[in-house]
Design brief:
Radius of gyration: 25 Å
Strand order of the largest sheet: 11-10-9-12-14-13-15
CATH architecture of the largest domain: Alpha-Beta Complex
Order of helices and strands: EHEHEEHEEHEHEHEHEEHEHEEHHEH
Oligomer: single chain
Structural class: alpha/beta
CATH class of the largest domain: Alpha Beta
Distance between the termini: 67 Å
């Protein structure tokens, strides 16, 4: 019998237990781990969003079983003025953790209590026996640190990690080197940038296919794709499934799999195809869009933000159809969809984004009607 798969497989994001980039710090006391994590997070925070995972199992520091949770509430939220606090009266699954931490660039984990897909191992003679019990957790060690009482990686660590000598090794007090390690890891993990030309609309107001108008000597969808080729790793023309066969073979296509949702569905379809890539999304109704504007957007890309976009010169709102959408925006877009919203601008207006003033306001001019075509032609002369 042929193998039967009940559910269709789709590309999964490269998550660990909490995030795409996560490290468990283990091998020493919880206090030392917390201090180290604070130093790393403090140094990374200006450029990256960091999360931290820990556990507290001592009885005298547990929340008393009184109040709303004790009365039976499953979830309690408190506005603490300088921060927000949630209490859950239920265990959270890996899937829920990933959703909560989805906007983090890096998550540090107290490895004495929880695990992560990468590890930073500390050689501390006082916790040697404890580390040996966790040897099976050393599945992807990326950094080794030596406490003051250790001179090298322990024998059992060397046996468990044959390539241990190829792993960076610092003293625990060498904070600068440790921070530089994490900065390099985050920089190397910058998501690749793909281009997506939105050409799947039905152009009802225009009365003809906007993507087929030859503003610059060739159909606009191909002109925009050519503009993006020098800025993106891969460039795709987003289209409806029935359009795919009619597009030129020299251009990669990406048909909508979230149908009847307009640009929103096109963006989601792109993330469904490559969820770990960032997508520079450009509409095909911007005839005055110049390469300098696109280069400026890419040069000022803020990887830590949900998206990098331009402020519309017309209403001051973010312009969603010439925007770099980072991978962390994928679950946010899906969550808005689940609440009944299919407006990408609404997502941007209610998220932490990086907004730029356009170099050339006319470059963001949308042309959707025959009347607007004439106005654009006047500006082009």
């Amino acid at each position: 019998m042929k193998d039967h798969k009940k559910h269709r497989a789709i590309t999964q994001p490269a998550y660990g237990n909490y995030s795409r980039l996560e490290w468990a710090l283990l091998g020493t006391t919880c206090g030392t781990i917390k201090t180290l994590a604070e130093s790393i997070i403090n140094a990374l925070t200006p450029d990256y969003r960091c999360g931290y995972v820990d556990a507290q199992h001592t009885k005298d520091q547990e929340e008393p079983e009184t109040g709303r949770l004790g009365a039976g509430a499953r979830l309690e939220y408190t506005d603490q003025i300088t921060f927000d606090q949630f209490h859950f009266q239920k265990p959270l699954s890996t899937f829920q953790f990933r959703q909560i931490f989805s906007e983090m660039d890096a998550v540090l984990v107290n490895g004495n209590h929880q695990q992560a897909k990468a590890q930073v191992v500390i050689m501390d003679e006082n916790k040697k026996a404890s580390l040996q019990k966790r040897i099976a957790q050393l599945t992807n060690v990326q950094l080794i640190l030596l406490a003051d009482n250790a001179d090298s990686a322990f024998d059992f660590v060397q046996e468990a990690i044959p390539v241990w000598q190829e792993i960076p090794l610092f003293r625990l007090h060498e904070t600068g080197k440790i921070v530089s390690f994490f900065q390099k890891q985050l920089k190397n993990a910058t998501p690749v940038l793909n281009g997506l030309v939105l050409a799947g609309g039905r152009s009802l107001r225009m009365g003809q296919d906007k993507g087929a108008i030859a503003w610059h000597g060739k159909e606009q969808r191909y002109h925009v794709a050519d503009q993006l080729k020098g800025l993106c790793q891969n460039v795709f023309i987003s289209c409806r499934a029935e359009q795919q066969a009619s597009l030129e073979e020299g251009y990669a296509t990406l048909p909508d799999t979230f149908t009847a949702l307009g640009p929103y569905g096109a963006i989601l379809s792109a993330f469904r195809e490559q969820p770990d890539a960032a997508w520079l999304v450009v509409a095909c109704d911007l005839p005055l869009l110049d390469t300098a504007t696109l280069r400026y957007l890419v040069a000022n890309r803020a990887v830590s933000a949900l998206a990098t976009t331009f402020e519309s010169p017309h209403d001051g709102f973010p312009e969603p159809l010439i925007t770099i959408w980072e991978p962390k925006s994928y679950p946010v877009l899906l969550s808005f969809l689940a609440q009944g919203y299919t407006c990408p601008r609404k997502v941007l207006r209610n998220s932490e984004i990086h907004s730029l003033k356009p170099l050339n306001p006319d470059a963001l001019l949308n042309v959707n009607t025959p009347e607007e075509v004439e106005k654009a032609k006047q500006k082009m002369t």
